[in-house]
Amino acid sequence: xxxxNRGNRPLSPHMQVYRLPLAAITSIMTRITxxxxxxxxxxxxxxxxxxxxxxxxxxxxxxxxxxxxxxxxLTGSAWALWFHALAGIRHLFYDSGxxxxxxxxxxxSWAIIIGSVVLTLLSLILFFFA
Length: 130
Prior knowledge:
Elements lengths: L21 H32 L1 H12 L1 H28 L6 H28 L1
Helix pairs in contact: 1-2, 1-3, 3-4
Membrane topology: Multi-pass membrane protein
Subunit structure: Part of an enzyme complex containing four subunits: a flavoprotein, an iron-sulfur protein, plus two membrane-anchoring proteins, SdhC and SdhD. The complex can form homotrimers.
Protein name: Succinate dehydrogenase cytochrome b556 subunit
């Protein structure tokens, strides 16, 4: 049998110790936001279908869209759309061989996070006040 010294081997990092890099977190969030966009799309499709169905169906759908839950879903969908779009642009840079160093990838991740929040707020301001 092989002489294996099991006591001196390094242990795998535990989840409480290991921290994912920001680029990995934003990559995971890109996938999550892609799926989360379905909630906003379903709400908008329901609203549009109700508009052509009749006044009662539209009144019910419009009430939900204009309620606080509709506002949260649509605002979250707007943020998810901006986040997903900016992450897609970052991915184009990755494909061209740019922003691959750790510092650049972290700055690009922060740009996605900050940019998505700013663009969402700008979209809300334009929607409500323009």
